[in-house]
Amino acid sequence: MRNPLQLTLDLFESLVPAPRPAPAPAPVVAAPVAPSVAAAPAEPLDAVLAPATFHHPNANRRAQLGHTFVAYEFKRARRKTIGFVVGVEGLTVSAPRWVPLAEVDAAVQAKSAWILAKLDGARQRHDRIEAARIQWKDGAVFPFLGEPVIVVLDSRGAGGATLNTDAQALPGVPRLTLHVALPQHANAEQIRDAVQAWLMRQAKRLFTERLDHYAPRLGVQWRKLVLSNAGTRWGTAHSDGTIRLNWRLVHFRLPVIDYVVAHELSHLRVMDHSPRFWDTVATVVPDYARLRGQLRDEPLPAW
């Protein structure tokens, strides 16, 4: 006699239907292959991205140079050839009155590589200057003779500004501080004006010293120094012995300042930029070409 557990298992198995055999797999039918279609070529990147543009504020003509649009200022001038000038505002093209516009357009196209290189360089320089724009406040930093100076507002000062030197400054930390006699709540314009006044006093003193140093060596005599604030000129010389120098030159290192001083004094002997003029400059500043490049390439802080 089977035990009760075995009887129960036998009864359960009799109630559960036997599993059906698995159906045979359906035959695999290959799907029809569509005829191959060549993929459309990718759209050129230049067509997707917006083309670069340069726009002179006084633009009255426009040219497409490669993938770049250039809106430039066109002027008629009393000259013999077509001239190109790239400045902070953009491209200016000057042409004689008798030159037809079609010839001007062709000249712009022929000069396109030079124009684009100069415009791109000017834009990069502008961007660097804006990135270095001074925020006039306590702790602002500006360059003086090529070295960073920290502004310190000090209402206890007797007036004006005083330059202090910290000989124990850590590497990478400016060692010069300019203590300006202003309260902590002074606004940006007050701080800027105080620093500018101090810099202009230093410029007057330093430029006079350098003029007196180089004039005898060049065999010339200067009569009057005028500080300028020109946007595009570092200096000018007049035949009467008047020398104009941009006060912002004090931001640069002394060798760069010396180059500009020697340049203007040399004009008292040669009033053009002929080879004889540059030979004159080289007698006192032999490496003038390198210093001239630094003056051109090193951006001044934006005020």
TrEMBL record:
Superkingdom, natural source: Bacteria
Entry-linked InterPro entries: UTP_pyrophosphatase-like, YgjP-like_metallopeptidase
YgjP-like metallopeptidase domain mapped to chain residues: 82-297
Name of the protein in its database record: DUF45 domain-containing protein
